Amino acid sequence: MMKRANDMSVTRRAALLGAAASGLVLGTGRGVAQTNEGLATPAVRSNISGFRVASWQHHFDNLRNGAILCDIDSRAVQFWSEDENVYKLYPSSVPLTEELTRRGYTEIVRKVDGPSWRPTPSMKERNPEWPDFVGPGPDNPLGTHALYLSWQYYRVHGTGDTRKIGRQSSNGCIGLYNEHIEELFGLAEVGTQVKLF
């Protein structure tokens, strides 16, 4: 019986080491996501983004004021500083449906630390039970920080509901973990160019 227990722990250890070896590779500051083909499918679908690292040159003419690329399909947000010394890659939540998704170029027009939230008229129509206003705090759907875009009602913001990240779960906005939006909030500025694609 003792030998069998040891065999099971070695197998578990080998599996964990193998999983770690095939995980996210970080060497140059850019991540490469691994697929889980051939592995057992978990009972509950995880909310992991399939990161697709992009080159800013394929989306922007320059990096004036920095650039934020929101990749709806891979559910990731990338940031480049104007001087290219800072590059960040974050998992994100994306809109629930294509109807709620807006794609194209915009920019940050306002930054708010501790935002308040009001549902849009269409949100209120779909969900009449929602409150008319939520002030800053842990129950706020915009999380701790929000980057307001030039498109009315669209934001890149935080969320306290970590289950949403990596999923189609928003009413049009791009959501990040609160610690990630706090970091991006410090890096981006009013005028930072943004593309959702």
TrEMBL record:
Entries under SUPFAM superfamilies matching the protein: L,D-transpeptidase catalytic domain-like
Domain L,D-TPase catalytic: 66-197
PROSITE patterns, alphabetized: LD_TPASE
GO biological process, one term: cell wall organization
Record-level GO cellular component terms: extracellular region
Protein family membership: Belongs to the YkuD family.
Protein name: Twin-arginine translocation pathway signal
Organism encoding this protein: Puniceibacterium antarcticum
